Amino acid sequence: MTNSKTDKVFASPLAEIAGFKFDQRVASVFPDMIKRSVPGYESIIAMIGTLAERYVQTDSRCYDLGCSLGAATLSMRQHITQPGCEIIAVDNSQAMIERCQQLIDNDHSDVPVTLQLGNIQDVAIENASMAVLNFTLQFIPVADREAMLANIANGLKPGGVLVLSEKLVFDDQTHDELMIDLHHSFKKGNGYSDLEVSQKRTALENVLLPETLQTHRQRLKKAGFSSVDVWFQCFNFASIIAIK
Ligand code: GEK
Questions:
Q1: CA angle 156, 80, 130 (to 5 degrees)
Q2: Is the CB of 67 inside a 6 Å radius of any atom of ligand 1?
Q3: C or N terminus of the chain, fewer CB within 10 Å?
Q4: What is the DSSP string of 133-149?
């Protein structure tokens, strides 16, 4: 049930392209889709484990917000060395949460994991030493992002870390177009056709809202993080470490 199939969601011409949804069809191909679409995804997931090893504190909570199939949750779970920790993983897609539960059940690490079906904007963050927003903030309405990050900063213990990974846009139009083009080359190199790239792009318009690195940096500082900077970037995809 949890085997991932090849992503063919946008392979055939669609008469009308609806807004992208994290439904059953997407959940069933998600590991293949994200690996072939996001440059560096597997490295980021692996390094979330390395960061968990360093930052997760004794008797604290870790949050995976917009967990999809729980890749970041599993990476944290397998690397936490401190006693008394638990992970709370949240997603508002029922299809994702169901498949995620199966994957968690098949993993036998010690750290308890609680999966929650719900909006990450409503999660009470408490006693946290690590929070992960791995390509999820980009789906939250722009006007709500600052409040969400402030909620995370307030719930983190001193020295706690937020890992924020996002698709980016750039102020310099030439650079922006180059990054988009290189990203499309990456996708085509991974077997996606021009039709698939273009139909997915249309489906994500007004659903995935990317911002500049500068916007992310300034908002994180305003939300209460003291140290903020990029630790990974490939083309228009980056991951930031923000420390309270
Ligand atoms: C990974 N982090 O593999 N509340 C809860 N979940 C949401 C919301 C919301 N308001 N909006 C979107 N989602 C994962 C990958 S994918 C990224 C994250 C991508 C969920 C949505 O259902 C989906 O599962 C996830 O955020 C985004 O490390 O597909 O580009």
A1: 15
A2: yes
A3: N
A4: EES-GGGS-HHHHHHHH
Which residue CA neighbors atom 24 of ligand 1 most closely? 68
- Ligand 1 pocket residue status of 7, Cβ below 6 Å: no
Length of the chain: 244
Tokens 């499309």, residue? 184
Out of 43, 73, 133, 139, give the residue to mutate to test ligand 1, the one with the largest number of ligand atoms within 8 Å of its CB: 139
- 19-46, pLDDT tens digit by residue? 667 888 888 889 999 999 999 999 999 9
Rounded to an integer, what distance in angstroms lies between the CA atom of residue 236 and that of residue 179?
A: 6
Chain centroid offset of residue 71 CA = 9
User: Which tens digits make up the pLDDT trace of 120-135?
Assistant: 999 999 999 999 999 9
**Which residues neighbour 232 within 8 Å (Cβ) at sequence distance 6 or greater?**
40, 43, 44, 47, 165, 238, 239
Ligand 1 pocket, 66 CB below 6 A?
yes
Query: Cα torsion at 169, 170, 174, 179 (round to 10°)?
Result: -50
Cα 224–chain centre separation = 21
Distance CA 239, CA 43 (A): 11
